[in-house]
Amino acid sequence: MHKEQTDNNFKERLTQLRESIDNIDNNLLELINKRLEFVQDVGKLKAKEGCQVLDSTRESQIFQRLLELNKGPLNEKVLRHLFTQIMAASRQLQRPSRVTFLGPEATFTHIAAMNHFGHSVEYIPQPSIRDVFNEVEKGTCHYGVVPVENSIEGAVNHTLDLFFESELKICAEKYQPISHDLLCKGGTIHDIQKVYSHPQAFAQCRRWLQKYLPKAALKECGSTALAAQKAAKKQGTAAIASSEAAHMYQLEVVASRIEDAAKNTTRFLIIGKDEIHRTGEDKTSLMFVTSHIPGALYKVLKPIADFGLNMVKLESRPTKHENWSYFFFVDIEAHIEDESMQKTLEEMKKLCLFLKSLGSYPRANEHKGSLI
Ligand SMILES: C=C(O[C@@H]1C=C(C(=O)O)C=C[C@H]1O)C(=O)O
Fold this sequence. Notes:
Layout: H1 3-49, H2 56-69, H3 76-94, E1 98-102, H4 108-117, E2 122-126, H5 129-138, E3 143-150, E4 154-155, H6 157-165, E5 169-177, E6 181-184, E7 194-197, H7 199-204, H8 206-212, E8 217-220, H9 224-231, E9 237-241, H10 243-248, E10 252-255, E11 265-272, E12 282-290, H11 296-306, E13 311-318, E14 326-332, H12 339-351, E15 352-362
Parallel strand pairs: 1-2, 1-3, 7-8, 7-9
Antiparallel strand pairs: 3-4, 3-11, 5-11, 6-9, 6-10, 12-14, 12-15, 13-14
Helix pairs in contact: 1-3, 2-3, 11-12
């Protein structure tokens, strides 16, 4: 076949396919707008009854249903991303919501928040985890996002401690894969004399730094995003931060994925004032203090096993009121409305000096990586 003929065939076929895509897009647009009209009606109903806008239980059920229905080629990650954005736009239409997070912008907490709530909400950074709690408590923001544990470094103690004083509830959890890049304003790796980052990021990239930048001075900062801001101001300096930070602070990525261990993940909590209903795949977080008697912790945990519940986390923190006395934190795979959980709590309460539930919320899957 002549080249001209092949070109014409290609163009014709491309035009046909694109026409089909345009038709689908027109239908999608119409359907999304129809969906939003129903969403507005739901919003009016909720406003009348004084109900909250975000219904995590319903959203989790929507994801479960769509994932079962999906036959591809759309993959799970992209499906989740698309519907996160559609639902975020829906919530925003019912009532504009404000989400606060441990800032500044482009921290991993910000990335986790955007992956959870989508791009349609207003994001407000805070200088500390305590400020995130305060803003949600005061009601200036509807939800807060804070880190609670990292797969390599362990618990974020400050977050755990703040739950003692706070009446806020955990409304959701989010696992965010953490990947570090080396960012700088320009030039090459050979020009870098100083590297800024958060101590945890340094710890996570130790071997890489020893190999490629053994002579660079390492300067600790309060967050990887702050490190990026600093590196943006001076040539010859770099930051270890997210690729999102590169984009936000106009830096170049000199080396990507420089962390020593793959599968580095941080678990974030979404805190707020909502009570989240049962989905069937839930987690409940509890905080308690045991008495100072032999076997106290063993006895308090025993009902969890007796009622056949799965404990997925146990953490301890000093109470700070009395030396060598501890708060314990446990996560259990159940909802507080479950009968087995109710019975477990009844038994545990009898054996604790203090016990409170930090909330029941849908269990997140650790392997639903980030897309944004
Ligand atoms: C539309 C609703 O409000 C919100 C938006 C949802 C959606 O877009 O499907 C689902 C749950 C709520 O977080 C609803 O409650 O049904």
